[in-house]
Design goal:
By secondary structure, the chain is α/β, with parallel strands linked by helices. The chain folds into two domains: 4-238, Rossmann fold, CATH 3.40.50; 255-497, 3-Layer(aba) Sandwich (Rossmann fold). The chain is built from 19 helices and 22 strands. Strands 6-7-8-3-9-10 form a six-stranded mixed sheet, sandwiched between helices. The radius of gyration is 24 Å and the shape is globular.
């Protein structure tokens, strides 16, 4: 049976602030409804209403013609609604089979767990996705893409009718993304009703039967992808035109950093590249190729076994982050929530962490000096908060990323290492962060950037150094470099052809 869920005139407020305003749309079986919008547009609220975490103030949910009411997530699951959250809800130390049957482990007589039946069910669920994953493997040993498939398999084992995917490819490599998109299309063909939430418009246009756009809690447009363009969508999301591509390359100054033969056993082998003032160098490659490991070595987090790092022509030893900061290097890490920010602390405290030595005297922080520095960067980076005491976890992803940028800009760096700077932020925030990077480079900053979004890498970079299996394999430059060319070197296909 093909199932349909209708969202009718849903309204929801929190503390007097209206999060959803009279929202109506339909998710149909054998179709993919893609939902797009900036952070704060209401996407998460509608997902949580469908999942039973929130109850609407007004409006109805109707499944197959029957009005349904959820008091909690259990009610939602009873009606066959499953949500794959951006933050996966697997238990890392359990096996794939144990996770897939979580909460419904098959039993033998005397209430003993039927382990063979559990493995059989897990294999069946994974086979439906075409996923070749060992059901006895511990989940923590799997790649992010494999974990995503395990999460979907768990949903399917619960007789899912409506599948909601919230930013499912945010942490996936290009290969893993393509595999997941293939699975989503397969599930559509099997009759599932799918709500797919993503900031990546390329994916949206590949998958969608309908695209629904949210802005400020309102549904502003719902249309077939044939009747709308990416630029139209961005305009509807943001309320204005947004430039998504780099307009010009900048004049380059002197060489600021040169890396020669960087080697770390088991991770990197003979990596070499350089970067100049006013230049953006992109590190291309697949997830796991060693790009983040390069940044960890350059910032002194991990020791190197051999190789040389030159700053402004002088070889320097970098054995700790303190050394890196002293040599005017800043690092915005891949995962801002676990590696960069203190989420329970304020914008002020997070921004000033890197300059405590400048604003402290006799062990006391000069509060007025601290506030002056932080307020300067809040304005410069247009961090959307009126209070420096705002707790960082309450900010959108884009504003959290700006706080991290502010922290390092406060150190007056010469070299900025950016690892996935726009991951998990909406289209508007992405354009703002890209604009900020452009402005910093125009002022003479040298930037090295990692991005799994190859189109972003192409748009921003003056040169791209492709990393494969821990080695720098080629440098690509010029306006005619293509996504296919980067992937060819990243996967090793160029060697297969030679």
């Amino acid at each position: 049976m093909i199932h349909t869920i209708q969202i009718q005139n849903i309204q929801k407020s929190f503390h007097g602030v209206q999060a959803l305003k009279d929202v109506s749309f339909t998710i149909r079986g054998s179709q993919i409804q893609c939902l797009v919008g900036e952070n704060g547009a209401g996407k998460s609220t509608i997902i949580k209403i469908l999942a039973g975490y929130y109850q609407p103030d007004q409006g109805d949910l109707i499944m197959d013609g029957e009005k349904i009411v959820f008091s909690n997530p259990k009610d939602s699951k009873k009606y066959g609604i499953s949500v794959i959250h951006q933050e996966l809800l697997l238990i890392p130390h359990l096996t794939v089979a144990e996770n897939i049957s979580l909460g419904q482990w098959p039993k033998k007589q005397r209430s003993l767990v039927d382990w063979e039946e559990m493995k059989h069910r897990a294999k069946e669920a994974l086979n439906k996705l075409g996923a070749n994953i060992d059901v006895e493997a511990v989940v923590s040993t799997l790649s992010t893409g494999e974990q995503q498939l395990v999460e979907i398999a768990r949903s399917l084992s619960m007789e899912t009718k409506v599948l909601i995917l919230d930013e499912p490819t945010a942490s996936l490599s290009e290969t893993e993304t393509q595999q997941l998109l293939k699975v989503v299309k397969h599930l559509k063909e099997k009759g599932l009703a799918i709500l797919y939430v993503s900031h990546r418009l390329e994916e949206v246009f590949e998958l969608a039967d309908y695209i629904t756009v949210f802005r400020d809690g309102k549904l502003v447009k719902s249309a077939s992808p044939k009747d709308i363009t990416p630029n139209n969508i961005v305009r509807l999301m943001v309320g204005k035109d947004v430039t998504l591509e780099r307009i010009k390359k900048h004049q380059h100054g002197q060489k600021v950093m040169e890396v020669k033969g960087l080697t770390r056993k088991g991770a990197l082998a003979n990596v070499s590249f350089d970067v100049h003032e006013g230049e953006i160098v992109g590190l291309g490659g697949l997830v796991g190729a060693g790009r983040t490991e390069i940044f960890r070595c350059l910032f002194g987090v991990d020791p190197i076994d051999s190789g040389e790092i030159f700053i402004e022509g002088k070889e320097v030893p970098i054995k700790s982050p303190t050394d890196a900061i002293q040599h005017k290097i800043g690092l915005v890490p891949e995962d801002r929530k676990t590696q960069g920010l203190v989420l329970s602390s304020s914008v002020r405290e997070n921004t000033s962490l890197s300059i405590l030595n400048r604003i402290m005297k006799f062990g006391w922080i000069n509060k007025s000096k601290e506030r002056e520095v932080v307020e300067n960067y809040r304005k410069r980076l247009q961090i959307k908060t009126h209070r420096l005491e705002t707790i960082v976890m309450t900010l959108s992803g884009g504003n959290q990323q700006k706080v991290l940028l502010a922290r390092w800009l406060a150190t007056h760096p010469k070299i900025l290492l950016l690892d996935e700077p726009t991951r998990g932020v909406d289209v508007g925030a992405r354009a703002e962060i890209q604009r900020l990077i452009e402005e910093l480079v125009a002022d003479g900053l040298a930037v090295v950037i990692i991005s799994s979004d190859i189109m972003e890498l192409l748009a921003l970079s003056d040169r791209i150094v492709v990393i494969r299996e821990g080695r720098s394999v080629v440098e690509l430059k010029g306006d005619n470099v293509t996504k296919e060319e980067v992937l060819k070197y990243a996967t090793g296909a160029s060697e297969d052809e030679s």
